[in-house]
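Risk register update: the risk that structure generation would not scale has been downgraded. Supporting records follow, first protein first.
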Amino acid sequence: MAAAAAADLIIKPPDLAALVVAVMVMRGQADQEQTEPQTQVAVLVGHIVQEQTAVPVLSSFVTGINKENTVSFVALSGLPRTGSTLLSAILSQNPEIHAEGNSAVCQLMWDLQQSCETTSYEQLAANYRQEYQDLLVSSIPKNYYRNVQAKYIVDKCRSWTLPANMKMMRRYITDNPKVIVMTRPIDEIVRSFVKLREANGWTGDLESDLLVAGSEPIMRSMEGVEFAKETNKGEFIFVEYADLVRDPQATIDRIYSFCGWEPFQHNFTNVVNKHPEDDSVYGLAKMHDVRPVVK
């Protein structure tokens, strides 16, 4: 069943609750293309279970239905150390835009999709519930941002540009994807990482591991950027770090035009990160700090 068609589906809560339990209990390893599965899936999917009565469980946000011809979900992707945190902080000045730190949405959707197609498929098929895959996976973005009131969601994840994830976005979120792709020369990115590692007390060879084929955080992201450049038919906009810091107004104007957002007056001399991440989780303190003045 296509995601849009699932929007009209009515599911009785007890059935859906049982399905959620079955899916999560039977989950196995995700595809090697992604990182390890994350346990938040059970909590997020659980939010779509309502009590007392049968309810419609999908909204226009989740299915990508664009009745007002606006874009409600925009992905922020590209290479690391390219100003994505700075851009998110600038965009967050607009009360109609929610742009926070690295998002788990893409990974969570991938994990649940893999479960539905592998470890949980037998149970779904045996109970004639294969079509629930679209229902469940599509619910993740909505429930991840369930407490956000902003009109536009900017979801940050370097993996969005990978082919399989773009396919997933089109299937479960919107058939009109918009992706902001941040770029910067590789040598500058490596120098930035080396400087950050030195500031955090790292010793030894601080750069060779950054350039291993297929490795995170640079080379696998580069694969996605190259795919985006090769296949772009208007769904990607490329933003150079140098352009963002040298002429932030022109860069923001390009992004707003690309996304179809109403103009907003941003302040480039008082930038505050409204959604700071706990960089201790990454082992690199101050990795996502932003300077108040764009320069």
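Supporting record for the second protein:
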Amino acid sequence: MERGPPVQFNPGPPFAIGDILLCDVEEFGLQKGLVTRADHPSYEICLDCGHVVDTSATSAVLFPSYAEWEGNTNKFAPYVEPDIFTKLRQEMSQSGSYGMHIDAQNTALRLVDEAKAYAKAVKADDAGIPVQLWNDRISFAGVGSEVMGVALTALRKLGWLWFMKSLLRDCIRFMKERHGADWARRLRKGREGITELGRDQTAIMSLLWYSAQTDWFEYTAGSRLAHFRFPTRYQKLARDGVPIYFELPGPTTKGAQPQIADPGLRARTRDKIAKVLRRRYLRSPVSPIKLNIKYFAVPKGEADVRMVYDATANGLNECVWSPPFWLPTLNTLVRCLDEDLWMTDRDMGDMFLNFQLHESAVPFTGVQLLSLYDSPTR
């Protein structure tokens, strides 16, 4: 038996915008398809039945279409292009592109660019939010990036208003459930000092102040725990801080903060402390300070610093008792994982300053600022 010429196919994958291929989708079966968006290995394909398939969200098998070649038979003859394909092709501006253009880079290059931009953003605490990276995650056919950016900005403002309204509603509900419907008329202070109602109200007022300074992406003026959203047994700890248990009388050394000789480092340290003051993490003392805690700056990234508050330098750690606690290791962590789980590495801002310092520890954590403003030669 004489064999005929081999069947020949058009190029692909990858497929370019405007290519006609064969698309096997369970819902529609095997059909001809026109590539309207290419970002290999993801494609948007218009089937000849009129439905549009996004292969990044729908399981589909793609085959190159049959090509014309000398000696072909009717069985593999190239098909007549459907009218819907002809009409779509006339409206395409990126026909022939494989996705390597400004508005739709291929997946690998886009991820590399995003990783580089994000790496630069996280090195400095004051770096701006890379909003464009978030905007690029959302796209609709026929909507430009500028129009999409304006729409997303409006939606984020609406979402922020919804967040504030929900937070205020939750605060009021908590006060009513915890202290009664007449909580607004009850005393905040008693003979023994501030009452539980007063402590809750003070914490909630601080929380609302921080929340009012936020935007969709960032707590621009700092943050405070919403203690009423914690389990009941932990709500007071989240509100007031963890009590400090002293085994020995607390030290009372008020040594001077070491001078910073480098003017540039001193200026960056001063900016960091000023930021902490603006965010109300540091406040003027209302009771006598017994001990000053040392602090210093360590480099972070190319031009930023990270503040370290050292409680070991003034002997405070030697006077307090800390209970033992279980700490997972890599081996114990892996036991909890399987092939369906994902893990992420997140850098959470203000995680040290965000938690309340218990009033029993406040007298032993004074921060002296004179050395940041005096000349180191004086």
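The mean pLDDT is 80. On this basis the risk owner (M.S.) recommends closing the item.
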